[in-house]
Amino acid sequence: MRARIRPALTIMSVSALLVLGACTSEVPTDTDLGTETTGADAAGESEFFVQADYEAQMALREAVPEGPEDRPWEQMIDPEMIDTSEYQKDGPHNLCFSNAGLFNSWRAVGWRTMQAEVDLHPEIAEFTALDGQGQDDKQISDIGSLAAQDCDALIVSPNTTATLTPAVEAACGEVPVIVFDRGVETDCPVTFISPIGGYAYGAAGAEFLRDEVEPGGSVLALRIAPGVDVLEHRWAAAERVFEDSDLDIVGVQFTEDDPATAKNIVSDFIQSNGGLDGVWMDAGATSVAVTEAFEDAGMEIPPIVGEDQQDFLQAWQDKDLTAIAPGYPTFQWRTPVIAALRILNGEEVPREWRLPQPVVTEDNLDSYLQEGMPPQHYALCGCEDLPGFPEEWGG
Amino acid sequence: MTQTAVPETRRTRLRLPATLSASTPVFVLLGVLLLVLAFVDIGFYEPDRLLAFIRRAAPLIILAAGQYFVMVSGGFDLSVGSVVTVGVVVAAELFNIAPDMPWPVAVLILLVAGMGVGLINGLISTLLAVPSFITTLGMMLILQGAVFFWTQGAPRGYLSDDYRTLGRGMVPGLPWLPWAVIVLAVVAAAAVVFMRSDTGRTLVATGDNDAAAALSGVRVHRLRVLAFVLSGLAAALAAVLVGGFTGISAQAGDGMEFEAITAVVLGGVALGGGRGSVVAAMAGALSLQTLFTLLTMLGVSGALESTVQGVIVIAAVALGAVSWSRRQRVPNSTKERR
Predict the structure, then answer these.
(1) Rounded Cα gap, residues B163 and A67, in angstroms
(2) Contact call for B156 and A35, based on CB within 8 A
């Protein structure tokens, strides 16, 4: 017994020391902490990076969208219109919606907005929505049961891309399908609705830092988690901008979207670097905690990338930040309902319905910031004209 | 000649591990981590940085102390993470409803509610004889669901600056001393005093052998319920500090129950109870927080962080287990000699 324990113990202690040792040997000799992570990520990101998509999105940022300027959820960029007369049907209609889930406040705001859009249309007799709770298997069964029901059109916001593809393909045979937010690997849906995309989002923040931070300045990159395509695209685009800049990326860290984790990481980097000159983020849920890390360290808040979340916009105004908030607009939740009704009326819709992707800057901050909204409200909801605003959105 | 030489060598080789008590590995681990940190970044030991670090570690250390009471008495409390989340969200909602509420009132409401959750956990585990693992797992799911249902994923309201002082602010007149450090010191002192009291000792005895404890007149159920109430209280206090430190978040306490249990296990507290000190449990929490900081500074992120954490936890607990098995062997061999 004793003889058996000792080797096990030795192996465990040695492996612990090895792990620690491996880490220690990676310690850079200068203040350039964490650059290895950047290298590792650059290698890992290649499977998500598609040069053509990247270039297309960069070009779409400059394009002028068609449609009403004050209703960006009805606008379309560079649309290729298709005929939908085969789906024409007399109302009233039964619309169905398979949601990936309500696992963050972005989706919560979007879901409220979608419901309010449905309420605008008396021709929608019934709106049946099933929540996939963030699980592929649940959503596959949801799509199956909705397609078998008496739905006139099926809206899908897929939880993941590849796994949901067969379910969407199967549904396409039963009912006209509209996919939005995240994509699937099939072109069977009548239309696919999304903003420009992750590359455009990531580049907007990185270009801002490139222009605002002094050359040679140290920038920390905070990401939510690896392996999510839209987030990988954000970072891939940012990395390209940073590579061509004089900025020093001192670290790339994952926060799991937890403000406490983000604040701790930033505090550690501030202290071990003697400060930071900029913070890039792939999403803004933790941005206020990041600004507080600088305040708590008694330092000025450097140029920072956030998102169109109310608490960040409020902090931006109150603390007079140098900031930018690229948006992934929640107003896109209105578009699938509008698209479904157009399809059932036999009107043309774009094959890929590309929505504009506004960026909140110092110049337009005032127009997006609204008093009295809850901290996790998203300003680009396009919901101000909807009945029940602001109460239904927590205001 | 040779026969006597062999046992002597063995004894010399065994002396070091045999002196290891169950909680020694955590202090060794903490020492090693702090030493490595010194090599990575000597500035870490500047007083204001060190105090800022302790401020940030305070919620987890307090949670670990609460978790210790439950674990040493033979149970688990998986609900503490969701109590932290609920605490943060409820505090924000309280200020949303009554913006002028004095902050101590909000803190008091949370602490009472935390004890209430603990009381329910305790009563279900003891009176209905549901294993605490299941009771608190259920409570965790109930609270998570309730927060989600209530907030729909987007909590309302802001935490007032006054309320956030405990978790974020400094003591007036002593701009280098965070309030959270004082709160932590008070909790630690209270926990040590409690564990030295008769009730504290009986709590350990209950975890060691509840039948024997009951026969010697201990009210086992009452004691176990008390442990859960203390754990709920600690979780609510941690919620006050976490909310103060980072502000509102619907996932403030995500995973904290596992960090607290890891900390207590690192501290050498036996699963099933009956052994281990509260100070070692708190040192376990400090070690975990030090490890997180070290990994960030080394640029380790994402999946590897969990891996390193897992290896160190297993290694530390294995060290504790080995020394324990030796300590048990002594009375066994004595028995054989008789």
Answers:
(1) 48
(2) no
Indicate if the pLDDT at residue A323 is higher than 90. yes
Please state the pTM of the whole predicted model: 0.81
Cα–Cα distance measured from residue A245 to residue A208, given in angstroms and rounded to the nearest whole number: 11
Question: In the structure encoding, which two tokens stand for residue B75, read together?
Answer: 């149970």
| Interface probe, candidates B29, B168, B300, chain A, greatest A C-beta count within 10 A | B300
Residue A3 scores a pLDDT above 80: no
The CA distance from A168 to A175, in Å, is: 10
Sign of CA dihedral B91, B95, B98, B103: positive
Secondary structure of A121-165 as H, E, C letters: CCCEEEEEEEECCCCHHHHHHHHHHHHHCCCCEEEEECCCHHHHH
Asked if B293 reaches chain A (Cβ–Cβ under 8 Å), the answer is yes
A104 in contact with B, Cβ within 8 Å = yes
* ipTM metric: 0.80
Closest CA to B280 of B40, B27, B86: B27
The verdict on a CB contact (< 8 Å) between B39 and A24 is: yes
> What are the structural domains of chain A?
4-58+198-326 (3.40.50.2300), 89-195+329-356 (3.40.50.2300)
Q: Which of A231, A256, A263, A272 to mutate to test the interface with B (most CBs of B within 10 A)?
A: A272
Rounded Cα distance between B112 and B232, Å, is 9
Task: Find all residues with CB under 8 Å of A228, minimum gap 6, and list them.
Answer: none
Looking at residue B85, its amino acid is T
Cα(B203)–Cα(B195) distance, rounded to whole angstroms?
A: 8
Tokens of B330: 């002594």
Which two tokens mark B83? Answer: 């109590």
A366-393 pLDDT tens trace: 999 988 898 889 999 999 999 999 888 8
- Tell me, what's the pLDDT at A139? 94
Q: Name the band, by pLDDT with cuts 50, 70 and 90, for residue B112.
A: very high
Residues of chain A contacting residue B157, judged by C-beta atoms under 8 Å apart: 374-375
Whether the Cβ atoms of residue B73 and residue B224 lie closer than 8 Å to each other: yes
Query: Does B301 contact A254 at a Cβ distance shorter than 8 Å?
Result: yes
CA B302 to chain A, closest CA, distance in angstroms equals: 6
Q: Which residues of B touch A375 (CB under 8 A)?
A: 92, 155-158, 247-248
Would you say A286 and A262 are in contact if contact means Cβ atoms under 8 Å apart?
A: yes
pLDDT of residue B153: 67
* Closest Cα in chain B to A34: B299
Distance CA B56, CA B242 (A): 8
**Mapped to the 3 state alphabet, what secondary structure does chain A carry?**
CHHHHHHHHHHHHHHHHHHHHHHHHCCCCCCCCCHHHHHHHHHHHCCCCCHHHHHHHHHHCCCCCECCCCCHHHCECCCCEECCHHHCCCCCEEEEEEECCCCCHHHHHHHHHHHHHHHCCCCEEEEEEEECCCCHHHHHHHHHHHHHCCCCEEEEECCCHHHHHHHHHHHHCCCCEEEECCCCCCCCCCEEEEECCHHHHHHHHHHHHHHHCCCCCEEEEEECCCCCHHHHHHHHHHHHHHHCCCCEEEEEEECCCCHHHHHHHHHHHHHHHCCCCEEEECCCCCHHHHHHHHHHCCCCCCCEECCCEHHHHHHHHHCCCCEEEECCCHHHHCHHHHHHHHHHCCCCEECEEEECCCEECCCCHHHHCCCCCCCCCEHHHCCCCCCCCCHHHCC
pLDDT tier for residue A15 given thresholds of 50, 70 and 90: very low
What is the residue whose two structure tokens read 């030489």?
B5
Q: Position B173: which residue type?
A: G
pLDDT digits (tens, 9 = 90+) for B38-54: 888 888 888 888 998 99
Q: Chain A neighbours among B 168-207 (CB < 8 Å)?
A: 168
Upper half-sphere CA count for residue A68 (Cβ side, 13 Å): 5
